[in-house]
Write a structure and sequence with these properties.
Number of strands: 3
Strand order of the largest sheet: 2-1-3
Order of helices and strands: EEHHEHHHHH
Helix content: 40-55%
Strand content: 5-15%
Distance between the termini: 45 Å
């Protein structure tokens, strides 16, 4: 197998199985709760859950590419949400910071009159700051629409 950046999702024809391949150090750090590495695992699982049909094609793979952002990988004029990388990242942030858990966290913070930072949220949910920021960006409007006063927490 060629050198992985962090990991990749693929389908093996021989075993007819989906596989997440990770560099050994990424797997070790994910097992011990490192936010960025947990996110990498969840991101690759996102490719399997969201794009498994594409992975069934021979030789198809999704690689995590830190050299450019999801919008830079898309042709001009195509919205970022159409990017499989962006979709897998949103999936990962939702998986690692579920709405119900986030709602409970924000409710406790509001009760204590605390204003958690992105770093506080990342530590609590064992996420990278980037993953926490992505999830909060997507989550707060939903919590506010649900009647929660979540926007006052920040």
């Amino acid at each position: 197998m060629e050198q992985l950046e962090d990991g990749c999702a693929m389908h093996t024809q021989a075993d007819d199985a989906f596989v997440v391949a990770l560099r050994p150090e990424v797997w070790d750090r994910a097992r011990f709760g490192e936010g960025r590495d947990r996110f990498t695992v969840a991101h690759e699982l996102g490719h399997i859950f969201l794009h498994g049909d594409r992975l069934l094609k021979p030789g198809a793979r999704f690689f995590r590419d830190s050299n450019c952002s999801a919008p830079q990988r898309m042709p001009p004029g195509v919205p970022v949400y159409r990017s499989p990388e962006w979709q897998a990242s949103v999936f990962a942030s939702c998986m690692l910071m579920p709405t119900r858990s986030a709602r409970a966290y924000f409710k406790v913070a509001a009760t204590l009159e605390e204003h958690p930072s992105i770093l506080d949220i990342a530590k609590h949910f064992r996420l990278s700051r980037q993953a926490a920021a992505l999830r909060v960006e997507k989550l707060l409007p939903r919590l506010a629409a649900g009647g929660e006063e979540a926007t006052k927490v920040f």
